[in-house]
Design a protein that fits this description.
This protein is of the alpha+beta class. The chain is built from seven helices and 14 strands. Bound molecules: dinuclear copper ion.
Length: about 325
């Protein structure tokens, strides 16, 4: 990792993700424009104070009429279009950070005072570290066990709050191998400043080697399936779809709610439906499902969601 430094102090983090390049382009353009405006204003302030100092013979009184209106209209329109362009460009950059590419690797992140717990799709777990392959999109589904934290990776120009009782999502695609700082960017208690970790970006070969070296004992979806049976979910969800929606093929599908709203069944929706079943009720079903809030831990929720995601519609159930 090589951050830009000045006299040995890091002043600007390295660009290590696709989003970092986009974010920096906006930043440097806005910074450049600000410098130009600063220069013009400073030049005029200093120039005029010298030219019109007390006792100088410079001509005072009204400007020649030609300069007055044209220049005024020109700079007003010019700055309006500049501001609109900046707004459009910055929003486009921001929105590109929200839409996850569909084939991203999905990683569950659980934040707690004061550590980051990470769970990979194959069940591998890490604490305060996240190993990812270079040049592949990675989606993070995050939640907190206690207070609000914030997942911040300066080299990726990526920051997303991690909230208790709710799943937030974000994604990144690393563009260079190396180890990058992970920080908590929301004050969360005494050891907030020590709630740090590393994102280790690896070449595809190294990543494959790392993956095979991980213990695979607890496959996320398989563990979720055991929980699914233990909690008795199957008694309503796995038969004919009369009492409750069939979950096979649910993930990623559009679902019609009782409010006629259409929602995409992503990980956050599935998670919310386990915790607050009455919030987004599927059209045609009575509100009979109990909430599992407090009954399942965040780690178990991640397992249940992984299990429901893994239910492909190969059983021939009607969605
Ligand atoms: Cu976690 Cu600050």
């Amino acid at each position: 990792m090589n951050d830009a430094t000045f006299a040995g102090l890091p002043i600007f983090p390295v660009e290590a993700s696709t989003q970092a390049v986009r974010t920096d382009a906006v930043f440097f353009l806005e910074f450049g424009i600000s410098l130009v405006i600063l220069g013009v204003v400073a030049f005029l302030v200093i120039g005029f104070s010298i030219r019109y100092r007390r006792g100088s013979k410079a001509r005072r009184g009204p400007l020649p009429s030609l300069i007055r209106s044209e220049i005024e209209i020109g700079w007003t329109l010019g700055t309006i279009f500049l501001a609109l362009f900046l707004f459009w460009w910055a929003s486009a950059t921001y929105f590109s950070a929200l839409a996850t590419p569909p084939k991203a690797i999905e990683i569950h992140v659980l934040a707690k005072q004061w550590m980051w717990k990470v769970e990979h799709p194959d069940g591998a777990r890490e604490i305060n570290a996240l190993h990812v392959p270079v040049n592949e999109p990675v989606r993070l589904i995050m939640t907190s066990q206690d207070v609000i934290h914030s997942f911040f990776v300066p080299a990726f120009r990526m920051k997303k709050d991690v909230l208790p009782g709710r799943a937030t999502e974000t994604w990144f695609q690393a563009t260079r191998t190396g180890t990058y700082h992970l920080e908590c960017a929301e004050y969360c208690g005494t050891d907030h400043s020590r709630m740090t970790g590393s994102i280790i970006v690896m070449s595809p070969d190294d990543y494959a080697r790392w993956q095979t070296a991980q213990p695979q004992a607890d496959n996320l979806a398989a563990a979720g399936g055991t929980l699914f049976d233990m909690l008795g979910c199957a008694s309503c969800h796995e038969t004919d779809g009369k009492r409750a929606p069939v979950l096979y093929g649910l993930y990623g599908r559009r679902v019609k709610l009782s409010t006629d709203e259409i929602i995409v069944a992503d990980s956050a929706y599935i998670r919310d439906s386990i915790l607050q079943p009455r919030k987004d009720l599927v059209a045609g079903y009575p509100p009979i499902m109990p909430s599992f809030k407090g009954a399942v831990s965040d780690a178990d929720l991640a397992r249940l969601v992984a299990y429901i995601r893994s239910l492909k519609n190969s059983q021939g159930y009607k969605p």
